[in-house]
Amino acid sequence: MNAATAAAPDDHRDRIAQLGDIAQRMLALARAGGASQAEVSCSEERGLNVGVRMGEVETVEATRDRGIGLTVYFGRRKGSASTADLREESLRATVEQACAIARFTEEDPAAGLADAALMATEIRDFDTWHPWPLDAERAAALALACESAGREHDARIGNSDGASVGSGESLGVYANTHGFSGASRDTRHSIGCGLIAGSGEAMQRDGWYSTALAEQDLESPAAIGRKAARRALARLDPRPIPTGEHPVLFSAEMARSLIGHLLGAVSGGALYRRASFLLDSAGERIFPSWFEIRERPLLPSGFRSSSFDDEGVVTRDSALVEDGVLQRYLLGSYSARKLGLQSTGNAGGVHNLDVAANAGGFEELLRTMGRGLVVTELMGQGVNTVTGDYSRGASGFWVERGEIVHAVDGITVAGNLRAMFHDIQAVGSDIDPRSHVRTGSILVGRMTVAGGD
């Protein structure tokens, strides 16, 4: 990709119109093929990613992908097919294939489009479209500047995992035979750097990255590089800690994973398969009484803002947890029918989440904890979603008298998610803005820490 290509006029409206036309043609073909219902998703993505390491450009990757996915229903029988070929004969073949599959599948009482009455009727713009006229040469220069700032920050930074700069655009159209048609568009840009401090067996790695919808909202390459260096240096000279029961403070970027376990446990698929430790928990207090999580799909400039979900169902600002009580599950139409409930507008996942803070910033949380463990990295997949049992490798910092005293690694933190949720002592105001799950650091009152002492 060259500068002229990157600076080409923004033609996304024409491309969305083309995808919309394709969607309507596919629906018409599905009806003509005998389908009682049909839905189609059309998407197109463009991107540029450049990686450098030790002052040299290592990778340049320009991507351009598109896909058409069709699902047809013959009563309660379902068939799906997809293609990336926009030629008329390919579209027709895709419809024929989906219809053929549906004719020979067994009926599923939960199959079908989402209820027509739930379709969104107003499609809003959320200021998520900010193309970056970035070419490979400029991206490489930014990545090199980021890595250089980190490597030059301190003589103890002896090696690098590299730096990268990426920019992407995504367009989508979803339409179905209820008459619904909705378009989406968003951009995402990022700069990141990973550095290695120390030497020999004493080496430690860490990094930092910034991601945003608009290029001007990214942290500067130099700031990212220097922060990556400081984080790597802070991990030098790790020491053992006592094995036992200790308070654990999950840094904001790690706290997101705790919320992620909640989302997995209250998602429709896990619930109707009875593979969740939070079965039949709607209306139950599972967090402290002050704890709150709100879903905000209509948030301006949100990473996951949308007027509709992946089935065209209208989205609404609503509580997921209020006064510590789980208010609802996360359901698409299929899982809702399996559970005898109604879609919550979460087909395709959750939208923007805000976890309410009840405390100050990170330093205040350290003082509140007094003595315990700060977790800044988690490893492994030791989480049982059926029982809620939690055991993961971790690294971070040991805290005494409200201050970090040294780094730790090679430890394990363990507990049970239900008990951990009940035992959350504080949520900080140090929100990590790099995700659609917006939370500060989370302090859990007590967990088992195996420190290797």
TrEMBL record:
InterPro entries, per database record: Metalloprtase-TldD/E_C, Metalloprtase-TldD/E_cen_dom, Metalloprtase-TldD/E_N, PmbA, TldD/PmbA_N, TldD/PmbA_sf
Pfam family, one: PmbA_TldD_2nd
GO MF annotations in UniProt: metallopeptidase activity
Enzyme Commission no: 3.4.24.-
Keyword field contains Protease: yes
Domain Metalloprotease TldD/E C-terminal, residue spans: 243-451
Residues in Metalloprotease TldD/E central domain copies: 130-236
Domain of life: Bacteria
Metalloprotease TldD/E N-terminal domain residues: 38-102
Keywords: Hydrolase, Metalloprotease, Protease
PANTHER family listed in its UniProt record: METALLOPROTEASE PMBA
Family, per entry: Belongs to the peptidase U62 family.
Record NCBIfam families: PRK11040.1
Protein's name according to its UniProt entry: Metalloprotease PmbA
